[in-house]
């Protein structure tokens, strides 16, 4: 079993670690977690994970190094560990938004094996949509990274130039869909339901819509057509939303998030 070090054990890093253990991909002792404060990793230490505040010591025996830190902090951390990386032995997986493989190799070394991965916070329940990409890493490395993230959701391999766009659509997208569900529940309250009932109804309806597309493979408009009858209430509601810019606002939000994500590394 390969040894894994996750540098930056926040929500994404911890969810990945727990997901790998829960799916029996590896044991807690195979994973080293780093964080500035060990107190924040007390539960993980008790669960059998190795924990450390020393990034260099943490990567010493690692074959897989996951860089799960904010893009603004990534360069500093990479400069810290660069003298101690083993380029022939280690593969680096970066989940930092907007940081190219080339930028990572510029710090770690030109021969570094780098694969970028962009999961979302549904990784915590094993339902992430993770996009992965690389520039020069091998097919075997891509297979390895795919296998890792398939333990915590679905994976798609995309060209690296689309990774920033994937950040907006999948990682930021969680918040966009949550806001849509929240808005639906608020609409439910306005038409007479108690808040907790309205939220439950909105959540299950959204889940049903997503499952409908995923299981049937249908296009959204095909399913929309099934519930829109002439002069009916569904088409009236859809048209009112479109008149007020629903689709346009959603698209513009995704585009703006993509632009923002592309510049985060340079803000560090």
From TrEMBL:
Q: Where in the cell is it found?
A: Cytoplasm
GO-annotated molecular function: pyrroline-5-carboxylate reductase activity
Which chemical reaction does it catalyze? L-proline + NAD(+) = (S)-1-pyrroline-5-carboxylate + NADH + 2 H(+); L-proline + NADP(+) = (S)-1-pyrroline-5-carboxylate + NADPH + 2 H(+)
Q: What class of enzyme is it?
A: oxidoreductase
Q: Which InterPro entries match?
A: 6-PGluconate_DH-like_C_sf, NAD(P)-bd_dom_sf, P5C_Rdtase_cat_N, P5CR_dimer, Pyrroline-COOH_reductase
Q: Which residues bind NADP(+)?
A: 68-71
**Amino-acid biosynthesis found in the keyword field:** yes
Which stretches make up the Pyrroline-5-carboxylate reductase catalytic N-terminal domain?
3-98
The record ties this protein, via Gene3D superfamilies, to: NAD(P)-binding Rossmann-like Domain (3.40.50.720), ProC C-terminal domain-like (1.10.3730.10)
Q: Which GO terms describe its biological process?
A: L-proline biosynthetic process
At the top level of its lineage, which domain of life is listed? Bacteria
What HAMAP family does the database record attribute to this sequence? P5C_reductase (MF_01925)
State the family named in the UniProt similarity comment for this chain. Answer: Belongs to the pyrroline-5-carboxylate reductase family.
Name this polypeptide is given: Pyrroline-5-carboxylate reductase
Species whose genome carries this gene:
Rhinopithecimicrobium faecis
The organism's taxonomy opens as: Bacteria, Pseudomonadati, Bacteroidota, Sphingobacteriia, Sphingobacteriales
Underlying gene = proC
């Amino acid at each position: 079993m390969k040894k894994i070090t996750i540098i930056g054990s926040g929500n994404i890093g911890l969810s990945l670690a727990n997901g790998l253990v829960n799916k029996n991909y590896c044991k807690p002792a195979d994973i080293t977690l780093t964080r500035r404060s060990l107190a924040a990793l007390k539960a993980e230490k008790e669960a059998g994970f190795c924990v450390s505040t020393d990034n260099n010591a943490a990567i010493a025996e690692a074959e897989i190094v996951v860089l799960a830190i904010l893009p603004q902090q990534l360069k500093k951390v990479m400069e810290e560990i660069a003298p101690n990386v083993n380029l022939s032995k280690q593969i680096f997986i970066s989940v930092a938004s907007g940081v190219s493989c080339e930028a990572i190799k510029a710090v770690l070394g030109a021969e570094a094996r780098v694969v970028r991965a962009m999961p979302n916070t549904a990784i915590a329940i094993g339902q992430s949509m993770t996009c992965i990409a690389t520039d020069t890493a091998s097919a075997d490395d891509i297979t390895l990274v795919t296998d890792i993230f398939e333990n915590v959701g679905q994976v798609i391999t995309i060209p690296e130039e689309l990774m920033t766009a994937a950040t907006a659509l999948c990682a930021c997208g969680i918040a966009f869909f949550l806001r849509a569900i929240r808005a639906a529940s608020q609409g439910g309250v306005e038409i007479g339901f108690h808040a907790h009932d309205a939220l439950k109804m909105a959540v299950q309806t959204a889940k049903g819509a997503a499952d409908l597309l995923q299981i049937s493979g249908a296009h959204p408009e095909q399913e929309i057509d099934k519930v829109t009858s002439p002069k009916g209430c569904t088409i009236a509601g859809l048209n009112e939303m479109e008149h007020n810019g629903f689709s346009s606002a959603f698209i513009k939000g995704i585009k703006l998030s993509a632009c923002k994500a592309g510049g985060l590394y340079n803000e560090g």
